[in-house]
TrEMBL record:
UniProt KW Cell membrane keyword: no
Reaction(s) the record says it catalyses: 2 Fe(2+) + H2O2 + 2 H(+) = 2 Fe(3+) + 2 H2O
Protein name (database record): DNA protection during starvation protein
Organism this protein belongs to: Candidatus Nitrosocosmicus franklandianus
GO CC terms in record: cytosol; nucleoid
GO biological process, one term: intracellular iron ion homeostasis
Chain ranges of the Ferritin/DPS domain: 31-170
Entry binding sites for Fe cation: 38, 74, 125, 157, 160
Highest taxon listed in the record's lineage: Archaea
Length: 196
């Protein structure tokens, strides 16, 4: 019981994670930073996509749109897990954006040069890979639920990185057209794994 006579149940799932060696507080911090980066990236990718103009830009918009919506899907897939772990999102969106685990993907000054936009997109994806990789490393073999969601997100972030590397270097990649924008073939429904 708490001071207000509220019943606070013992959360066995958290006990198991701690027994497995997971620092739950650090995990919640990493997830909060990761979902903050996904949410802010969604916002910044909206701006970046709108500035992909001209004949070349039109071909890139669809790729940016896929990454943009899938990043929003990553936010939505992992936030329920954050709350299951006893975490929460900051109440003020300014605080949320400030604590995000990746730098803001600002529109570059020379935005008419599509290469400069693609470089910003690539850096954002590479940061996301590092961020979710850290969550995967922390939870592998210790927290199967968080690990599963994070590795699904990471698979899509790795694809996004390959798309933007392909555009910059003309190197072949595994990029393929999604069936619909923001399909999220790996993380769709990851927050609710009942579809598996």
């Amino acid at each position: 019981m708490t001071e207000n006579n509220e019943y606070v149940p013992n959360v066995v799932a958290l006990e198991v994670l701690e027994k497995n060696g997971v620092n739950v507080e650090r995990l919640k911090e990493l997830i909060t930073k990761g979902v903050g980066a996904e949410f802010t990236t969604y916002y910044y990718y909206t701006i970046l996509r709108m500035h992909c103009t001209g004949l070349d830009g039109e071909g890139i918009k669809e790729i940016v749109e896929d990454a943009r919506i899938e990043d929003r899907n990553h936010f939505e897939a992992m936030v329920p897990r954050l709350y299951e772990l006893g975490g929460s999102l900051p109440r003020d969106i300014r605080d949320f954006a400030t604590q995000a685990g990746c730098p803001d993907a600002y529109l570059p000054e020379n935005w008419k040069d599509l290469t400069s936009i693609i470089k910003v997109l690539l850096e954002a994806e590479q940061c996301a890979i590092r961020s979710w990789g850290e969550v995967c490393d922390m939870t592998a073999g210790k927290d199967p639920r968080t690990y599963d969601i994070a590795q699904r997100i990471m698979q899509e972030e790795i694809e996004h990185e390959a798309w933007f590397i392909e555009l910059l270097s003309k190197r072949p990649s595994g990029h393929f057209r999604r069936n619909f924008p923001g399909q999220s073939p790996y993380s769709s429904g990851a927050g609710n794994l009942s579809h598996l």
